[in-house]
Design the sequence.
């Protein structure tokens, strides 16, 4: 790699994804392998998570629940600091069950989300929106593959 810092991609995929999404997941995973083989990135990881996390229940206080919520918070903090939006990526629902009387917050997890790190610094998340324009995982990976000017990376962090 020509960068001084190590570039790591983390791909989060929803378990039990529908067959159409599974094909997309397989394609993205193959792209990650190709990027690693071409030395465009140093490493990648694949993490499997569920369909949703209930942020205000006992499950959210488990190690797995905390890990998912911490990752969502990290992604949202990055988006806020860098003028990006993840509002269409993580759907938040306030649930008020008429049957049980329970009230809780549910966050629906995307089929896939990609995070790019240079060393331990988060520098990109896809999908996201930038100035109202959606940025897909495929578009994000193209910028890595082509080694071109990286407009999807937060301003001031390119070249670090």
Sequence:
């Amino acid at each position: 790699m020509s960068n001084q810092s190590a570039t790591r991609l983390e791909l989060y995929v929803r378990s039990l994804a529908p067959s159409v999404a599974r094909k997309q997941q397989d394609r993205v995973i193959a792209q990650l392998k190709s990027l690693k083989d071409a030395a465009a990135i140093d490493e990648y990881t694949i993490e499997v998570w569920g369909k949703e996390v209930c942020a205000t229940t006992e499950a959210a206080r488990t190690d797995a629940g905390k890990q998912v919520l911490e990752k969502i918070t990290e992604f949202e903090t990055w988006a806020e600091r860098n003028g990006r939006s993840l509002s269409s990526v993580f759907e938040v629902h306030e649930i008020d069950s008429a049957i049980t009387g329970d009230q809780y917050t549910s966050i629906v997890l995307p089929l896939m989300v990609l995070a790019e790190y240079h060393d331990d610094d988060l520098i990109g998340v896809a999908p996201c929106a930038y100035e109202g324009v959606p940025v897909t995982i495929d578009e994000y990976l193209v910028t890595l593959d082509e080694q071109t000017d990286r407009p999807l990376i937060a301003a001031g962090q390119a070249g670090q």
Summary: The helical segments are 19-37, 63-81, 137-146.
